[in-house]
Amino acid sequence: METAKRLEGIGEYYFSQKLREIDAMNAAGKNVISLGIGSPDLPPHPEVIKVLQEESAKPNTHAYQSYKGSPVLRNAIASWYKKWYNVNLNADTEILPLIGSKEGIMHICMTYLNEGDFVLIPNPGYPTYKSAATIAGGKCMEYNLTKENNWLPDFKEIENNLYVNRVKIMFVNYPHMPTGQLPTMEMYGQLIAFAKKYNILIVHDNPYSFILNDSPMSMLSVAGAKDCVIELNSLSKSHNMAGWRIGMLCGAKQKIDDVLRFKSNMDSGMFLPLQLAAAKALELQEDWHNEVNKVYRARREKVFELLDLLECTYSKDQAGMFVWAAIPSGYKDGYALSDKVLYDANVFITPGGIFGNAGDKYVRVSLCCKEENIEAAITRIKGLP
User: Fold this and answer.
1) Residues 203, 284 contacting (CB under 8 angstroms)
2) What is the pLDDT of residues 57-99, one digit of tens each?
3) 267 φ, ψ (degrees, to nearest 5)
């Protein structure tokens, strides 16, 4: 049977394909060290796991849950936003828990996009923005992020596009993945002014603000942001809970209500013990984040060593759980270097081109791998011909 036209031009997610290939290599005895995907290998806090276990054992926690999420979780999110971002959110009307923030990207596109609406997508950027917008019928218009402009939007270039007046949604993601660029309050202000000028909804994807970053920021902290900004956030990276699929959407009541109209027809709520454990996670203090970042900093030093061996260049000021690095001139693109390292050293690093053609001359290396495994990868790369 033919697939729907909405899937035309939408391929299987890169990591879905690549991990199958790596599984096949491992089955053949290759023992690939994967430094590709950003799936935290560290566990959640023991108290968080304890809440999940205790609540799961209760007989009355297994029913369908509210489409809006548990009040316990929504209140915890509101307190968390106030504590860390200095953002006031109404727990009843301005917060929508999600089964991972990735589903929120799809929900937002399906809620707001009509056939032919234009969507601004960062290049390089998270591939799901483009996929979700395209499936929802949107037309993607890339805005280029460059090293020369510190991986920040070039508003003059964007405004020179003939179709800027037809843009409905703009996806923004800072700290930026894959480049690790941190946001500035000045940039947030420029984004909000731009959005108001052209009547654009800014979707800010903010899952990396606690990783290797001493000053977490939210775009919602800027005055007037709720008029044109909705923000996605997640516990996947900050609390080592990627497989738990717990995210959130925050913004003005009307926008939350809009997205809920779509979401409530797609799922039947989130398992209550997961929500209660997530609420516990959001109570964790600064010492939790310091300990997690201590591990990532040590791993990052090893990744720097690995990248030096490959003669890549990089900034040491990146946030998030990856290192973004420019490839040496001897390689056509990041795919060539990635394949060389994979097939000759059995080490997988991500080619930057999967994030858009602005990443063609880059690779991305994940910090979600034990230090001894990074050291083993270094040893293998030292043996490359």
Assistant:
1) no
2) 999 999 999 999 999 999 999 999 999 999 999 999 999 999 9
3) -145, 175
Strands (E) in the chain, as ranges, are: 33-34, 95-98, 118-123, 139-144, 167-172, 201-205, 229-234, 247-250, 313-314, 322-326, 347-348, 350-351, 362-366
Tell me which of 7-11, 292-296, 328-332 is least confident: 7-11
- Exposure string of 52-87, with b = 16+ CB inside 10 Å and e = fewer, is beebeeeeebeeebbbbbbeebbbbbbebbeebbeb
Helices in 38-150 by DSSP H: which ranges? 46-56, 71-85, 101-112, 127-135
The per-residue pLDDT of the chain, averaged, comes to 96
Sequence-separated (6 or more) residues with CB below 8 Å from residue 329: none
Mean pLDDT of 355-361: 97
Q: What is the percentage of the chain residues whose pLDDT exceeds 90?
A: 92
Query: Are the C-beta atoms of residues 232 and 248 closer than 8 Å to each other?
Result: yes
Choice between 235 and 15, residue whose per-residue pLDDT is larger: 235
Identify the structural domains of the chain with CATH numbers, from first to last.
5-43+286-382 (3.90.1150.10), 46-281 (3.40.640.10)
End-to-end, the C-alpha distance of the chain in Å comes to 47
Distance CA 260, CA 264 (A): 6
What pLDDT was estimated at residue 384? 83
- Specify whether the CB–CB gap between 261 and 240 falls below 8 A: no
Buried-exposed string 188-198: b where 16+ CB fall within 10 A, e elsewhere: beebbebbeeb
How many Å is the maximal CA-CA distance in the chain? 62
Place of tokens 């990146």: 318
At 11, the pLDDT band (50, 70, 90 cuts) reads confident
Interaxial angle between packed helices 286-309 and 371-382, expressed in degrees from 0 to 180 and rounded to the nearest 10 = 10
Contact 254, 229 (CB under 8 A): no
**Residues 99, 278: Cα–Cα separation, whole Å:** 12
DSSP string, 263-281: HTTT-----HHHHHHHHHH
Q: Side chain identity at 23, as an amino acid letter?
A: D
